[in-house]
Amino acid sequence: MLNIALPKGRLGDKVYNILKDAGYDCPDYENKDRLLVLESPENGVRYLLVKPSDVAIYVEHHAADVGIVGKDILLESNPDVYELLDLNIGKCRMAVAAPVGYEEDPDRALRIATKFVNVAKKHYAEKNREIEIIKLNGSIELAPILGLSDVIVDIVETGSTLKANNLEVIEEFKDISARFIANKSSFKFQNEIITDMMNKLKEATK
Ligand code: PRP
């Protein structure tokens, strides 16, 4: 059976529906409750429901053969996996945002709150801008409101979280979407099954 790491939550439900359309139905998914492993022997797949930010870890370490993960997480953790397909769902942008009307002081380090430490460092290194990072794990938008940071680096989808907190995008610098990834050794030894899944997903997301 092929082990598939699926992100729990919003993206996972969308991804599951695509996999279902592609022929990898798993009847237990609809009533999964708190189950973390779901099997569909007739379709040759076992779903592992994991935290979105952990999908690539499971795949890299071969606890899963394939997975679906946001490009934001791949950019941040740069895992040693194959990125096989852009599923064109879960689309958003990586952006810098600040309180409405914010003016940057170029004479001191820019204080950035973010979950995406490596992405932010790389972005500002390319601009030769001195920064100070405040690593947070969620509700990033609070940081500039409370004066903990000047700006945030985060993903923006509809923009409604920013708007609700009186923040605005200063700069968008990367397009993000969900990607189909594979463990390198699985891709070598189960190539036919994984390639078949990739082609079916390609067809289902066209
Ligand atoms: C993400 C992101 C923003 C929000 C953007 O948070 O960090 O807060 O979604 O979406 P929007 O532009 O459509 O408002 P998520 O829901 O993943 O929760 P988090 O605060 O725990 O990171």
Tell me what you see in this structure.
This protein is of the alpha/beta class and 206 residues long. Helix content is 31%, strand content 32%. The chain contains eight helices and eleven strands. It has helices spanning 10-21, 55-60, 71-77, 117-126, 142-145, 160-164, 184-189, 191-204; strands at residues 2-7, 37-40, 45-50, 66-70, 82-86, 92-99, 110-114, 131-135, 151-156, 167-176, 178-182. The strands form two sheets. The protein has a six-stranded mixed sheet. Strands 8-7-9-6-10 form a five-stranded mixed sheet. A hairpin with a 4-residue loop joins β2 and β3. The longest helix is centred in the C-terminal third of the chain and has 14 residues, at 191-204. The site of 1-O-pyrophosphono-5-O-phosphono-alpha-D-ribofuranose has 12 residues, from β9 and α6. Residues 138-141, 154-161 line the site of 1-O-pyrophosphono-5-O-phosphono-alpha-D-ribofuranose.
* Biggest sheet overview: 6 strands, mixed
Note the total helix count: 8
- Measured between the Cα atoms of the first and last residue, the distance is 26 Å
**Overall pLDDT level:** 96
Bound molecules: 1-O-pyrophosphono-5-O-phosphono-alpha-D-ribofuranose
* Oligomeric state of shown chains: single chain
Structural class: alpha/beta
Helix content: 25-40%
Overall geometric form: elongated
Strand tally: 11
Order of helices and strands: EHEEHEHEEEHEHEHEEHH
Query: How would you write the strand order of the largest sheet?
Result: 2-3-1-4-11-5
In terms of DSSP E residues, the strand content is 25-35%
